[in-house]
Amino acid sequence: MENFRNYYDILNINRQAKGDEIKQAFRRLARQYHPDLNPGDQGAEEKFKTLSEAYEVLSDPNKRAKYDQFSLFWKRQESPGGDRGRNPRPGVRQPEADNDFSQFPDFNIFVDDLLGRGPVNPRPGVRSPAAAGAELRSEPRSAPRRTMPRTEGSRIPEPRTQNPRTPEPQNPEPRTQNPRTPEPRTEVRSAPPPLVNRGASPPPPALGYKTGMVKTAYTIRPAAPPRDAEAKLEVPLERAYSGGRERVRLEDGRSIEVDMPGGMVTGQQMRLRGQGIEGGNLYLRVVVTPHPFYRLQGSDLFCVVSISPVEAILGAAIAVPTLDGPVQMKLQPGVRSGQRLRLAAKGYPQPQGRRGDQIVEVQVVIPKTISPEERVLYEEIYGLERDRLHKPLLLG
């Protein structure tokens, strides 16, 4: 079979895969080969088209069943002797008598017919189930002929340029017709030059058409209604505070850029018009990820800063990180561990335009190891304070 594509191998799934497994496999591969993620890579673009075609067929139970029957039919035809009585795969029903796919010598023609890209009837006298009731027009470069109705299995006489006035038989044989389903009609007429379908090319002569004949077929699909979609936008605290351009990757494989305003918080939504499904709206739900240093509570920012015992006793000016950069905070002598200090208007923006405060909790850290010089100094301090600290206890 020419151009045959094994959709199961393309999506890397087995033939018993369920609908959810097919969807997951397509999404995983679509993200890998999506053209937006591989700009300028023609191979990735063709791979993505093949993946989309495979998913469109296998995700539809009816199309998948017809594809499986087509694969089995040609596999049996190409086997030695064309054995029709053997089923190579247990549990799969053999094609019925009316599922004769011999009118599709090329796999691409079968796929076009299956996906509704245009009615196809590639061999004269053989009627495709998907093209029942369709009308085909063949227009050769020849003298005009009168329109002749076509019955199943009948042949259209060749137009003869030597005798363009040859009349039809006066007593033609009666033609059998199906009163419920009209048969395809072929109209032969002169057409200088022949009509060309927009975007279509003449089929090759091997498919039953003659040189100079053009098949015109149009398929009109109703437009799908627009639907809204939702997605999650995760950003760190610093970018949620400052805002800016963010890239969002959607479940369908698309990747878009959005301009996010500053001061966003978890739970807020952004609406993007026309970025949903079939022209609907896209709603982005903002999620601010946890920060290792800050804790956001309302519009106030909380943080913990470590200081040494000497800084706690003597007081000092220390650098404290903020969302706007480090600032100097002055510690008063005798500050206690766990004490909270406030940096006004250094917190998170409020909807009214004001800003919250940054609350700094001081933690006095006792060193686990000290140098010999530090030990000498600490022992001197201890000698000075020992009597003052413990004498009241002894007297009591």
From TrEMBL:
Entry keyword annotation includes Chaperone: yes
Region (Disordered): 75-104, 120-210
Organism expressing this protein natively: Prochlorothrix hollandica PCC 9006 = CALU 1027
Composition bias type Basic and acidic residues, residue spans: 75-86
One GO term (biological process): protein refolding
J domain location: 6-71
GO terms under cellular component: cytoplasm
GO MF, one example: unfolded protein binding
One Pfam family recorded for the sequence: DnaJ_C
Entry keyword set: Chaperone
Record-linked SUPFAM superfamilies: Chaperone J-domain, HSP40/DnaJ peptide-binding domain
UniProt protein name: J domain-containing protein
Composition-biased stretches (Pro residues): 191-206
